[in-house]
């Protein structure tokens, strides 16, 4: 550096409490560089050390080529590197840790790679097959590092196997630009810089190096968690403005849909959810209780007592209810319910947007419109009244994306297959029926695309088959026990029959749903099983638009595949028998071929119509993306047509009603003196799918007692056919009949003996009759069955029948 110009190399050494190791490290670097032909400078950045690190650096700074920069306080490695690189002037910049775990002599190997490969950066790698690891870290630390690197590759810098080795050589100007843009102060700075290089198309070479673990490492176990948090920040920061804006719009839309629920969490109840809100809040509460007490999350006897409930055979969404346990325990299951629905719709729409932006159109706003249609389509909004397992579908686009990646010539079969297996396993713990329907949709798409482009089968088939095999090997061990319990464990069942009227009417695809802006609840109610099963209702304008898009863009294989998927799914959703509207003609439906097959026999076939939502969303995204690049007149006319087709199905906020108050007998714990451990509380009538308020009372009573009856899927009869609720008994049927207006039978010794037998079966400790319609008749019935009058306590009648 005799001419005073910029040096060939700047070496930046971040240091925090490195009094013992810094002197030898600086001597080693100086000795190595002294023997080279390079002009150089060495910058030591003291990151707020509390020992003599600064003094050691000042002594070395007697050499004019060595400088000391001091931070006012300890802020982290990222902040120290940012200071050092900003102060550098070299044509190249070497970053090395103060422990010199990678010997400075490895600089020559990195420089050679930078010269020969014309890369912008050469980074040391301990994960390279040719790396020489002289002293390994402890097993736990090494395992954490390996897992961390895999996560980093998956979410931030795919293809780079070791981002955290502290020995990196950069092109100087590019390094200064990257660090000037960086924001992370911690260990995640390495990932942020490499991601910056990737984003700008600057090649990064990974070079095997010698490395030895040095005692006194400043990386503690907690730092691995901090790196994960920094990755989240990094991922959010790397999102485009369009992505952030679309996520905000999706979130705002979801909040507006559930605004009346959020403003009255203490008393609000989704009006069209039937008994499902009671059921789902119970699922969230029981899962949280099982987690808190380290009990089996796949089974409980708190409902359906004494037989219990096979939770894996129901829909508690363990993939969300387990991680949300702290929310449920701290804020209650109603908050969890509202949170899952609101964020679930948001995440689903955003996931479809990301899929469409990657595979359908480069225009983010067009992809966002398609994502909004797929995420907020009428069937989604219908299920969003009561079925989070059918509207929280954010993993489905992720699974589709990973399957599509396996079809590319450059597919990493092992990596993509492993991720596909993990994603599939997780979706099983969110909803199995949804995964089955999504698989049907993907199969329909694959067949349609293969017919449009036959060569794809030869090109993509082998890699896809291998990837699916890897996915199966990863997924099956993870779900083997839960699925075995579901199908063969206690209270398992074989199928749930829904009758012949579970398919969609052809008219349902052309009409508007009850929640649509131009919807008619009366018309929709006639064409659907109930308001939570309006599985079509896309409206004739959108169907007409999709037809026009298909005709106009028919030459594209993607359009043929999407149209084929939508048409095939719509036909399957019509069920086993298709009644032609306005006639008496009934035709056999294609679902007949699947209706009695394993797994499919429990599916409500009308739900297959939901597969049309992402297909229509992709068609709209593709069309709008092309319109955005069209001439002004065509663009305006086309976008107007899209708006007119979508406006009628814009969803309106969910109706919320006042929730019936919990009897103070349960809310205030007055039941406790009457119920011993192992005894149940028999509410009159017993809870069932038509009236499950008792589940809410049980939750408010901190799950302190089990309930006979309930709202769940369980077995009935010797064939273990699936039914909704517990297997009925004589007494439960009698109480149900009287509640809904049936005459009180002549209750003699036979009825009383049967009641005693049923109460003994239920291990009843207490019979409770809360206020309700026909409660006088119910009181008379229970009094005659038990042979004695009840006692009035806190507004309810009770009969102490315990042991």
UniProtKB/TrEMBL annotation:
Question: Pathway involvement?
Answer: Protein modification; protein glycosylation
Membrane topology term reads: Single-pass membrane protein
Report the residue ranges that make up the Glycosyltransferase 2-like domain in this protein. Answer: 10-170
EC annotation?
2.4.1.117
**Principal localization?**
endoplasmic reticulum
Matching entries from InterPro entries are given as: DPG_synthase, Glyco_trans_2-like, Nucleotide-diphossugar_trans
Chain coiled-coil ranges: none
**What CDD domains does this protein's entry cite?**
DPG_synthase (cd04188)
- Catalytic activity annotation: a di-trans,poly-cis-dolichyl phosphate + UDP-alpha-D-glucose = a di-trans,poly-cis-dolichyl beta-D-glucosyl phosphate + UDP
Record keywords: Endoplasmic reticulum, Glycosyltransferase, Membrane, Signal-anchor, Transferase, Transmembrane, Transmembrane helix
The subcellular localization recorded is: Endoplasmic reticulum membrane
Is Endoplasmic reticulum tagged as a keyword? yes
Cite the GO molecular-function annotations of the record. Answer: glycosyltransferase activity
Which parts pass through the membrane?
A: 334-353, 365-381, 435-452, 464-483, 537-554, 561-580, 608-629, 636-656
Belongs to which family? Belongs to the glycosyltransferase 2 family.
The protein's name is dolichyl-phosphate beta-glucosyltransferase
């Amino acid at each position: 550096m005799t001419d005073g110009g910029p040096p060939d190399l700047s070496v930046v050494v971040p240091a925090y409490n490195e009094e013992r190791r810094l002197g030898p490290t600086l001597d080693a670097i100086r000795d190595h560089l002294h023997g080279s032909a390079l002009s150089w400078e060495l910058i030591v950045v003291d990151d707020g050390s509390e020992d003599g690190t600064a003094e050691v650096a000042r002594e070395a700074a007697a050499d004019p080529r060595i400088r000391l920069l001091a931070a006012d306080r300890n802020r982290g490695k990222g902040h120290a590197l940012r200071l050092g690189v900003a102060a550098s002037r070299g044509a190249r910049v070497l970053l090395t840790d103060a422990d010199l775990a990678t010997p400075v002599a490895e600089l020559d190997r990195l420089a050679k790679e930078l010269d020969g490969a014309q890369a912008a950066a050469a980074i040391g790698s301990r994960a390279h097959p040719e790396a020489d690891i002289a002293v390994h870290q402890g097993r736990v630390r090494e395992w954490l590092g390996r897992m961390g690197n895999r996560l980093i590759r998956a979410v931030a810098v795919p293809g780079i196997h070791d981002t955290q080795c502290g020995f990196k050589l950069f092109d100087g100007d590019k390094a200064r630009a990257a660090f000037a843009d960086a924001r992370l102060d911690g260990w995640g700075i390495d990932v942020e810089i490499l991601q910056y290089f990737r984003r700008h198309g600057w090649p990064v070479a990974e070079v095997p190096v010698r490395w030895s673990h040095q005692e006194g490492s400043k990386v503690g176990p907690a730092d691995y968690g901090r790196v994960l948090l920094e990755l989240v920040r990094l991922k959010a920061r790397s999102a485009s403005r369009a992505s952030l804006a679309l996520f905000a719009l999706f979130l705002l839309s979801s909040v507006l849909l559930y605004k009346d629920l959020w403003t009255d969490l203490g008393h609000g109840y989704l009006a069209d959810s039937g008994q499902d809100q009671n059921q789902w809040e119970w699922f969230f509460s029981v899962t949280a209780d099982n987690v808190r007490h380290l009990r089996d999350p796949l089974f409980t006897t708190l409902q359906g007592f004494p037989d219990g409930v096979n939770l894996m055979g129901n829909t508690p969404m363990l993939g969300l209810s387990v991680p949300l346990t702290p929310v449920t325990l701290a804020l209650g299951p109603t908050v969890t319910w509202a949170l899952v629905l609101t964020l679930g719709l948001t995440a689903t729409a955003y996931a479809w947007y990301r899929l469409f932006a990657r595979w359908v159109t480069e225009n983010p706003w067009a992809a966002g419109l398609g994502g909004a249609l797929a995420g907020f389509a009428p069937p989604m909004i219908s299920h969003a009244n009561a079925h989070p397992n059918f509207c929280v579908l954010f993993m489905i686009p992720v699974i589709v994306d990973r399957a599509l990646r396996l079809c590319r010539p450059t597919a990493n079969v092992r990596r993509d297959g492993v991720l596909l297996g993990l994603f599939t396993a997780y979706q099983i713990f969110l909803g199995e029926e949804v995964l089955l329907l999504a698989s049907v949709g993907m199969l329909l798409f694959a067949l349609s695309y293969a017919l449009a482009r036959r060569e794809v089968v030869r090109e993509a088939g082998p890699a896809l088959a291998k990837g699916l095999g890897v996915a199966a090997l990863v997924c099956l061990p993870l779900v083997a026990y839960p699925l075995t319990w579901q199908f063969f464990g206690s209270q398992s069942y074989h199928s749930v029959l829904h009758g012949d009227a579970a398919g969609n009417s052809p008219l349902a695809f052309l009409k508007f749903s009850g929640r649509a802006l131009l919807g008619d609840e009366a018309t929709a109610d006639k064409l659907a099983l109930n308001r939570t099963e309006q599985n079509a209702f896309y409206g004739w304008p959108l169907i007409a638009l999709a037809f026009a898009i298909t005709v106009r863009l028919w030459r594209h294989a993607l359009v043929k595949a999407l149209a084929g998927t939508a048409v095939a799914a719509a036909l399957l959703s019509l069920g086993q028998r298709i009644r032609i509207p306005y006639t008496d003609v009934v035709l056999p439906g294609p679902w007949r071929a699947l209706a009695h097959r394993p797994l499919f026999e429990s599916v409500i076939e009308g739900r297959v119509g939901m597969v049309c939502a992402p297909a229509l969303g992709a068609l709209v995204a593709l069309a709008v993306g092309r319109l955005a690049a069209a001439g002004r007149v065509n663009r305006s006319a086309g976008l107007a047509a899209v708006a007119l087709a979508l406006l009628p199905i814009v969803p309106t906020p969910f109706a919320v009603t006042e929730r019936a108050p919990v009897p103070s007998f349960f809310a205030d714990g007055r039941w406790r003196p009457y119920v011993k451990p192992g005894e149940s509380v028999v509410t009159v009538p017993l809870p069932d799918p038509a009236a499950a308020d008792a589940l809410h009372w049980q939750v408010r009573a901190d799950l302190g007692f089990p309930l006979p009856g309930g709202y769940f899927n369980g077995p009935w009869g010797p064939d273990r056919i699936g039914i909704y609720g517990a297997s009925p008994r004589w007494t439960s049927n009698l109480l149900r009949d009287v509640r809904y207006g049936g005459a009180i039978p002549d209750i003699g010794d036979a009825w009383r003996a049967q009641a005693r037998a049923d109460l003994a079966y239920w291990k009843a400790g207490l019979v409770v009759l809360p206020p309700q319609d026909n409660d006088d008749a119910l009181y008379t019935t229970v009094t005659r069955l038990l042979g004695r009058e009840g006692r009035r306590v806190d507004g309810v009648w009770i009969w102490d029948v315990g042991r």
